[in-house]
User: Fold these one by one.
Assistant:
Number 1:
Amino acid sequence: MRAQVAVLGGDGIGPEVIAEGIRCLKAVAESFGHDIELTEQVFGGAAIDAHGNPLPPVTLQACMRADAVLLGAIGGPKWSAPGAKVRPEQGLLQLRKELGVYANLRPVKVLPALAGASTIKPEVLQGVDLVFVRELTGGIYFGEKRRDATTAVDVCTYTVQEVERITRAAARLAQQRRRKLTSIDKSNVLETSRLWREVSERVVRAEFPDITLEHVLVDAAAMHLIRRPKDFDVLVTENMFGDILTDEASMLSGSLGLLPSASLGEGRRGLYEPIHGSAPDIAGRGIANPCGTILSVAMLLRHSLGLTTEADVLEAAVHRALEDGARTPDIAAPGTRTLSTREMGDAVLANLAKRE
């Protein structure tokens, strides 16, 4: 098949992990005979430096033309001064809105070989396999913002239509898995959460009678993710809660560097990125874990290009590399040998080659 992928390296460790994702994408394309054209564009803080805009028109146009967008990470102290008028994150929010990607899928699966990388007891982690579906284009991140000398205001707004569509996306995913859906809100305090609970209950009862739906308050969900994570299957929640809880859930797997994400809308075009940030403290040192980015490439192959077999092969190569003991510093036991970002990419590519 032929496809176009827009590549946004971003800031910090973004270009480093993206380089390994691209190597793996090219290897899969060559192995299976696909023609995948990659278009690299500046984005985030790097784009502010070059153009004064975190999402220049040429970058947005390339993303809108592409079949999928692969993103490293953005941001850093250089662009985060309290009084800054232009921030990298503004570009990311705009890109999500322009692409119409409202459903952010974040899978968390604990590999037995990495149980020791987590600070949580191995018996608690056994069998953990869950997916967060985070609403991505509504809520407090996109609400009205005001500030004066004595007050700051961030408005959280959700519509019935926004809750309906994210609930449907999560319920369809649950139908493909264990048919259990957990909706997370704060309905004992927030009016938006009361709307969320009412609408999600109605949609699931009317359209997905085969799905078991439970409602959990966000503070209880934060506790239960650590106490009994294997009880969860698909979890759906609003934008800010999902942002926070998925970072917490990454610790089940042992590291932020391991987890991918896919941001999807009504069509097949999606935005794919690891869930971690730009990690400026380790940028340029060649020690960032590229596995989350490589697994995001696998999600890109599956969801936007429809290449399920290729996605399975790439995921298996990552898992085999980890099972064989390949470790970047974030997931290594003290005193053990660690791999560089490039060497971890080599380990995945070596397992891809074994398939042949």
Number 2:
Amino acid sequence: MAYAQTVGRHRYVFGDLRTLLARASPDRSGDRLAGLAASAEEERVAARLALANVPLSRFLNEPVIPYEVDEVTRLILGSHDAAAFAPVAAMTVGAFRDWLLSDAAASQVLQELAPGVTPEMAAAVSKLMLSGPRHG
């Protein structure tokens, strides 16, 4: 599935979740070497804006590394706790970030939620923490 965002007069299209996550990241040599880094700060901003609108459930349906070829992905998805995920299942990455920054995200609530949050979901939220665009 492709993701897109317009910034200024340019429309940026990200071919898949892996590319979107990489382009939303701060500039890193590894992403540049892999050909996944944003070409400019404007593209990075576009990727973060697009990422804010991605439903958290998409990370369960579109693994960054295909389930069939990656043992870690199989482990993460196989051990995912749907009941723990349920309270945030309808949220986007941006809404989840906002919720995490609210008083509702108390320690006990976070402990109960933890088995339902995948590493990719946490990484996506952390990329938004770097930028600040708020979306729900």
Number 3:
Amino acid sequence: MDTKKLTLALMMGALGNVLFLLSYVIGPIAPGVAFDFSLIGVFIAGLYGGPVVGLTAGAIAGILPGIMFGPLGTGGVLGLVGLPIGKALTGLTIGLLGKGLNIHRRSHASIITIPTIIASYIPEGIFTYFYFSYLLLLFLNQQMGTAFILTILAKAVVEVIIMSFIIAALIGNRGFNEFIGAHFAKRNNSKPK
């Protein structure tokens, strides 16, 4: 990973933590529950920097949520490790999908981005289910009910759907693409003939 891509990963990971903090402090839905848009930075990093940049940004973006729901919440050290792993999985997946689908070269990149973003959450969703169903029980003797787990996953899917439209707007924005390309990640944005 070169310096520009490392900078992109660090900045988008930091953005993810800031977005988490803002949503957690300003916009709680219920006590301890808020919309979490920290994956916006992870999606940008993965789509513009590739799988390694996305993975790195995801691990960084999971630090503050890991602290809040880990040592400061009920997850202990397991939360501090588990949340960054989940977000890193999403960063890795969106980087692989974006690269494999060559989204930036597509004539309708914004439209393709929406289902790609949603699909990129699947590994983290599976990991989240595994985390709540088995890891918490195994390491902390905490058992979470199926209704609780499904509620967490449903909230996450709604968040990812909202973020997919935000990222689609950014992918379709020439100014944003030129800014990222000029400063962080060189991309060949020419359309196929």
